[in-house]
């Protein structure tokens, strides 16, 4: 295990022990606020009940995200209502899915869709994931064999995406996406899954696994808070920019009173 001293310590603060973990898919669940605070800063409504599971709703009320650790197997449930040309969809992610990977999908829900056609396999190929020959289903596996992304097509033509990670003891998580789940969301998930960037966990929250590599780092509370706040600030800035651009668009419909007797008299 490597040990690293973090630069920029300030006076009067006590450093805390954290660990950078690779591969990220085996880092464990992490702090759900990594997901929920970003959504809240992006204008989502917190519908959670006191002491109950997390429940978030999109500004247009078409998507709901829930995290329930109190039931078995527990985990994340994301549900999208049918809208326009989009069918109803869902995604289910296990409780030990790292929040940084969950955020790959949930962060994408706060952004406009890219004009480019989504490609779920592209982020995996960029990180040298490989596809075993003669597999029953199209499957991409991480270089160390701990994580996978699989595409399964049923005899009736329905496509299903399945993903997950597992250590040498069989501990891990799985994620499943409905056939109707928008492909740009699945791609965002696969990009977060394949990212080589390590994720941070505090002392006592590091999984016991020979499959992971850890680097010990001493982190000041102010540094940790600043990193978390930077993510929230970015979400607020993006939301403000979208709302400003939307309000600047010209009106496409006339006001109801536009032809009601000409100009309205002031009182």
From TrEMBL:
Residues 57-114, 141-199 form the DUF317 domain. Residues 244-267 are annotated as: Disordered. This is DUF317 domain-containing protein.
């Amino acid at each position: 295990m490597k040990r690293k001293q973090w630069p920029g310590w300030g006076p009067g603060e006590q450093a805390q022990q954290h660990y950078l973990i690779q591969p990220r898919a085996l880092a464990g669940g992490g702090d759900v606020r990594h997901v929920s605070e970003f959504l809240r800063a992006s204008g989502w409504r917190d519908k959670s009940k006191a002491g109950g599971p997390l429940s978030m709703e999109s500004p247009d009320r078409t998507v709901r995200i829930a995290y329930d650790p109190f039931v078995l197997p527990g985990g994340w449930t994301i549900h999208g209502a049918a809208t326009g040309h989009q069918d109803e969809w869902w995604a289910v992610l296990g409780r030990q899915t790292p929040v940084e990977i969950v955020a790959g999908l949930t962060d994408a829900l706060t952004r406009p869709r890219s004009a480019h056609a989504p490609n779920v396999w592209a982020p995996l190929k960029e990180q040298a994931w490989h596809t075993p020959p003669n597999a029953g289903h199209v499957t991409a596996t991480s270089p160390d064999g701990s994580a996978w992304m699989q595409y399964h097509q049923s005899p009736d033509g329905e496509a299903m995406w399945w993903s997950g990670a597992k250590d040498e003891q069989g501990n891990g998580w799985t994620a499943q996406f409905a056939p109707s789940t928008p492909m740009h969301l699945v791609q965002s998930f696969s990009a977060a899954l394949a990212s080589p960037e390590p994720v941070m966990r505090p002392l006592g929250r590091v999984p016991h696994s020979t499959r992971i590599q850890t680097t010990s780092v001493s982190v000041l509370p102010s540094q940790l808070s600043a990193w978390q706040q930077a993510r929230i600030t970015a979400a607020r800035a993006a939301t403000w920019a979208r709302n400003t651009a939307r309000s600047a668009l010209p009106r496409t419909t006339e006001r109801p009173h536009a032809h009601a007797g000409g100009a309205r008299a002031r009182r």
